Amino acid sequence: YRHGEYSDVIVPTPDGLVTFGRNSPVAIVAGPCSVENEAMIVETARRVKAAGAQFLRGGAYKPRTSPYAFQGHGESALGLLAAAKEETGLGIITEVMDAADLEKIAEVADVIQVGARNMQNFSLLKKVGAQPKPVLLKRGMSATIDEWLMAAEYILAAGNPNVILCERGIRTFDGQYTRNTLDLSVLAVLHTLTHLPIMIDPSHGTGKAEYVPTMAKAAIAGGTDSLMIEVHPNPAKALSDGPQSLTPERFDRLMEELAVIGKAV
Length: 265
Ligand code: PEP
Ligand code: MN
Fold this sequence. Notes:
Elements: E1 9-13, E2 16-20, E3 27-31, H1 38-51, E4 55-57, H2 75-88, E5 91-95, H3 102-108, E6 111-114, H4 122-129, E7 135-138, H5 145-157, E8 163-167, H6 185-193, E9 198-200, H7 202-206, H8 212-221, E10 226-230, H9 248-261
Parallel strand pairs: 3-4, 3-10, 4-5, 5-6, 6-7, 7-8, 8-9, 9-10
Antiparallel strand pairs: 1-2
Helix pairs in contact: 1-2, 1-9, 4-5, 8-9
The chain binds phosphoenolpyruvate and manganese (II) ion (MN).
């Protein structure tokens, strides 16, 4: 697992290079769970950019538990992400669920996300490994650290050295107060096992907006290289993951709090 030569992942964005790595400022990825319409994605992009984020996140293809839940706007949402990118200069991170969509996703995405539910979709891992865009690999909700690193290994082995590991919470016995258990011990463990950069996602990790700031600060104290935070202009009306989404105002405050801790941009 020791990939010494892969220590930093450097991502070109319209605003310049952003480095994910141990000796760089914490890279901030923020935005809604799903891209819902042009006004909301552009507004969210402007707000998170003003607060200091480097990347806009937003799902076009959504892996929903229920087939009757909002599935994402698909290709048209990719066009809206392109508009938000053009408007703000932010980098774009969005999820691929089906390798057939990879090419058109890569036209707008600067980093391609493989979600928790696809962490061991080996054919998808081989495909994202065989294309040039950096890959954000989320930890499966029941994946061991070895399984997660081996999933990363599939991407590396296919020829793509630019993998970022994202902890987004795992399933434990107590789902009453938090959606998942955010496993911040990965910060200590992965520092000994791999040089791949680490991202922490306290939004999916807790499932509750009010818990996100505490865990974001804890992640920075633990040495994370990056944070992913869900932000929505009107969380109560969000089509997915509203309860865990920060308002732009709360995100502004969080960024100020993170700056005090240091290392954050
Ligand atoms: C997401 O980032 O919106 C998402 C679906 O995350 P995960 O794969 O971690 O559940
Ligand atoms: Mn989400």
